[in-house]
Amino acid sequence: MKRFSKVLSLACVPVAGLAIGASPAMAQQITSLDTPVLVPALAFPQGLQDKEIARSIPGQAAVDPASLRLLGEDTNGKYSVAQAEGGTQICIIVQLRGVGSVGGSSCTTKEQFALSGVRVGVQENGGRAVVTHLLPADVDATPIKANSNLTGKFVSNLVVQPNASPGSGQVELDRLKSSAKFNYSALPLAFK
């Protein structure tokens, strides 16, 4: 029996080594988790337009109004970014244009944002619809922004699908300082 336990112990060593080698904690980090690196707009001071938008956000919203920054806008609406949960989450905020128009937001942790960005879909009752996706700053979004009508200082990593237009399926995008790819896929809205 003693000989069997030695063989079993020796057989477990490579398995334990494999488990440690494949540990997520040991994996190479794809990008920095510093907020200004992930979303450069958050490194700039809040301007008057940012403050105006922050005042229009409902009080029960989870975002920190002092962190809100306008990314850009188009004929459909305004698109902003903010932080939540004491700076541990990054949020995208969409406000469709028009009196009494709708808005929406979505937040994710910085770790999840670095991997997949954050997106939200907003649709008026029987009207306009947009799906908005904010990508980490190190992702080259050029291949999916060919027909963008966005204007603003921070639109390079903002992707807006007006009227929930179908995308081209899943697209692998390059990261600027990593060989790891960013997998982007269009998000359809549930209603039309």
From TrEMBL:
Which residues constitute the signal peptide according to the record? 1-27
Q: What is this protein called?
A: Secreted protein
Q: Which UniProt keywords apply?
A: Signal
Lineage of origin? Bacteria, Bacillati, Actinomycetota, Actinomycetes, Micrococcales
Organism of origin: Paenarthrobacter ureafaciens
